[in-house]
Amino acid sequence: MVDLLKLPPLIFDIETDGLLDTISKIHCIVVGDQRFPPEKVGEAVALLQNHDGVIVGHNIVAFDIPAIQKFYPGFSHNMSLILRCGHSWCVPMYLT
Question: Rounded to whole angstroms, what are the CA distances from 31 to 21, 22, 60, 96?
Answer without folding.
Answer: 24, 24, 13, 24
